[in-house]
Amino acid sequence: MEPTRSKATAIALIGLVVGCSRQNPAPSGASDAAPTTAASAPAPPAVPAPPTLTGFPPQVDLTDPPADEAEAGARTTKLGVVSIPLGAHERRPIMIALHGGSDHPEWACNAWRGITNAYPFLVCPHGVGTNEASLAWSSPADTKLRVARAIAATRRVFGSWVLEGPIVIVGFSMGATQAALLAQSEPGRYRRVVLAESAYAPEAAMTFAAPWAAGGGQRAMFLCTTLGCEAPYRAAAKNLARHEVAVRLNIAGTTEHGMWEVVVQSMRRDWSWLVEGADGWESYVPPREDAPLPGKTESF
After folding, report:
1. Over the stretch 70-82, which tens digit does the pLDDT of each residue have?
2. CA 191 to chain centre
3. DSSP H helical segments within the chain, as ranges?
4. Is residue 175 part of a domain?
5. Above 70 in pLDDT, residue 37?
6. Which residues contact 194 (CB under 8 A, 6 or more apart)?
7. In sequence order, which residues have a C-beta less than 8 Å from that of residue 261 and are 6 or more positions away?
8. Which of 61, 177, 214, 219 is the most exposed place for a label (fewest CB within 10 A)?
9. Residue 168 covered by a domain
10. What are φ and ψ of residue 142, in 5° steps?
11. How many domains, the chain?
């Protein structure tokens, strides 16, 4: 009788083990089952490749209504242009670039695209005027409306590719004056700021400091492309630093008023610093530089 009882006990234990194994699958790599051969092993599920932002030119016109929705012959209003982060695999932030006086948004987008390594949705709003090659800005209220319309048009076209959050704002010359005023009025939105070549009218660069810093401003940069810009902008940088905000002065080493290629190269030296820790810029990778960059930087 003992052998029979032992046999029954063994069968019961085997059943218990089988039942438990069905309820609690073994961790990967730890199984009592017979090893599975490579030929009989099920193929692992295919991992889909992440979506890629493609199918657009590097720069797209922003219009109202959108070009693909406008009826034949209908008049559209140009709101600006947007530089596209082609090849992106994840959502990207919006950045605003305001062109200078007697300027146009396409030139602004071309320059700042080179500085940012085409990382963000670089929105370059259309200023005031009928001569597309020589636009300007009128008032902070009008500029704010133009920026809002250009951003809305970008979101309408690119939808979920656009990352919501704080926005980096930059401006050149007259556009820099407008950028300072916008940052002063909405510091929580525009936490990173670049003002370029507005030293001919330095009041905005000086007065935006206190309210912008108090409202959440984080980092700022002043950019000079002419010799006469350095002293006023150095004073503005020191003034901003007194409000405990990290600030730099980029001196491109040129003597002409403009966003030339040498200016783009000089700004690349400091761009990683400007966007370090900024929302949406975590995946930013600066372009590889094979030679020392022109210009110099002063930190305050």
Report:
1. 777 788 999 999 9
2. 12
3. 2-23, 105-116, 140-158, 174-185, 203-207, 209-214, 230-241, 261-275
4. yes
5. no
6. 168, 169, 170, 171, 176, 179, 220, 221, 222, 223, 267, 274
7. 114
8. 214
9. yes
10. -65, -40
11. 1
Return all residues near 88 (Cβ < 8 A) that are at least 6 apart.
52, 53, 161
Please state the length of the chain: 300
**Amino acid identity of 139?**
S
Query: What CATH number should be reported for the domain holding residue 209?
Result: 3.40.50.1820
Q: What is the pLDDT of residues 6-16, one digit of tens each?
A: 444 433 333 43
Q: Which of 130, 123, 185 is nearest to 154 (CA)?
A: 123
- Mean pLDDT over all residues of the chain? 88
What is the pLDDT averaged over residues 275-280? Answer: 98
Is residue 1 within a helix (H) or strand (E), and if so which, with residue range? Answer: none
Handedness of CA 69, 75, 79, 85 (dihedral sign): positive
pLDDT score of 18: 36
How confident is the model at residue 124, as a pLDDT?
99
Contact (Cβ atoms closer than 8 angstroms) between residue 242 and residue 260? no
Q: Which two tokens stand for residue 236?
A: 């503005």
Residue 50 lies in a domain: no
* Structural domain containing residue 207: 59-299
**Residue 43 domain flag:** no
pLDDT (average), residues 90-110:
98
Amino acid at 24: N
| Strand 219-224 with 246-251, pairing | parallel
Q: What pLDDT score was predicted for residue 117?
A: 98
